[in-house]
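Task: complex structure prediction.
Instruction: return structure tokens for all chains below.
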Amino acid sequence: MSINYFKLITKLSMAIAIVIILHYYLFLTNIYWVLLSAILASLPTHGSIMRRGFIILFILFIVVIIMQFFVPIIVHDRMIDVIFGVAIGTFCQLIWPINLVQEFSEDILPVLQQVADYLETSILHFSEKEYSQEWFEKKINLEKMLSKKIAYPEWVFATGFNPGLRGGFRFFLIHLDRIIELLFALTYLLDRFITQHTNQMMRDLIIHSMKVHHEIFNILINYFKHNQLGYFSIDYDSDIATLDKTIWQILPARLEGIDLSEEPLTLLALVRNIKDTRRWLLKLLSALPDE
Amino acid sequence: MSKRISKLFFRSSSNFCSVLSRRFVKLNNEIFACFLQSDYPDNEYLYERRLHVQKNKCMKFISTVTEQTKMYDRFYSIMLDYSQLRHRVPDHTIFEICRHELIAIRQAINNILQNMIYFTVNDERNIEILREKIDRFEDIYQNVLRVTARDPIAFVLFIDSLKMFGRTK
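Output:
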């Protein structure tokens, strides 16, 4: 989750200012309780603002009830303070809500760039064999990035997240996740292929298809960067069709033949991985709104 | 002093590996849940989300290991490869036919993952058990799935991936 500090500071300052003004005119019994609950309720959230307000209210009520056993306080006065504070905090959230579409674009862009970078190194490794270590490092970096909650827009799955945007954002993340899965599985399939096969034609076709994958990734990156679909080719199928046709010229026509030996299976698994990746990439591309 | 340091290092590294193997077991369970749970097509996002959480936990560990990263990474890549079966089989009811075999394979893989930090004779026995379970699955594939499945190659690739898992060391 990327935090816009300017917005955050403005919201907090606004909440504090309202509390001070109300305290001056209404003579609230304890300004600290109002401040605490107002600050907590005005912190940014991607889920439902009202729901978060009620949760904070509930927690602070419990804190007040427990505190009365240790500190001499008037419970109903503190509860009124808490209600005031939460109401002010929630009001400040509503004034300047988070732009979820912009935030999603900002969060997903580095992930897409990292995946495209990893794919580019995979192509280099597959075509020139000298990038083994670099390829592995890129993979580890991508894994590090994906496992960080701050870097990956996990907030899309938050409870109470905007129902209008939920479907589209989750669709995008789940499909991107499938593509990343396939690219990680490609690691060991490419290694297997390199040790078993010397067919240059097949190798060239695979490299070409991977380059088309990279091109589609660049379109996605461009979309999230400039909020518009740039130029893209109409034909993203012919390379896959050629790959499919060529593989069945190499492999035994009957399924029994494939079952027996390992080499045709490696080739088949690799081509299937590339076909699946393309399928999910095209789904993502076709799901982008035309703006 | 150096003995003490090496002892401490071993203890922490073995602890680290045991946590990693637990994470892998959980990931494996989530992968097989996608095959075995009949409500997967209706609640696809829910299952995918659970899988995503487990994958992240594994990745977090893999990316911090230094010496044995490549081996764990290979395990992880193969697991992701055989998990593709869930997308490649359009008719989910087909998994009902091979349900018992899939459960047995899941258990055999879990046993290997639980013991992967020791590399003992026990480990070899677990691999042998996995091979037996794969053979049983291959039998059911040859007799039933090859004819009934809309895309039998998906199962061929699944079996191949499982065999590769058994060979990873």
